[in-house]
Amino acid sequence: MWALLITGFLVSSQTSEPVTKPAEFNGQELQKIVEKAMGFWRVPGVAIAIVKGEKTLFEGGFGVLKVGAKDPVTAQTIFPLASCSKNFTSALAASLVIQNKLGWDEPVQKHLPWFALSDELASRNCSLRDLFSHRTGVGPNDLLWYRSADRVEDLVKRAKFLSLEKPFRGAFQYQSTMYGAGGLVCEAVAK
Q: CB under 8 Å to 189, separation ≥6 — which residues?
């Protein structure tokens, strides 16, 4: 949520004057904008990446991880974004579908051969559409991932040990780890 709010603040803090030539990247100006946004939103730190086309103009952190702490925010700091990352993941998947690199109904195992649920039929037939529609049969199981330092791939691999709480494609059950699986599918396809 904070990432979206800060993004909105950064965008809204830009001048509305027409631009006649491409702006040059100015690190000092970025520092001022970020510090102003951090003060406005009262956050101790943020990580930012600025990408133009295929070129990364900037990536780095500002501030600290916690109020009163000394650990700095870096480009590698992972922030909990709640479920905002589901929007990013599904947008990426949609762009890959539009590029014909991926299909909503292709089996996940086509791209992640190791992917498995506790039910063999569900494992073989589970698609990106199933992952993103929260209809795999796997219940929330938030303790599987919440505050875990494990890689997403490791968390997804553990899903095979979770009994399906509902029949495959039989009910909506909000499930974050399966969105992680969808992100891994996108990563595999985009390489």
A: 96, 101, 102, 111
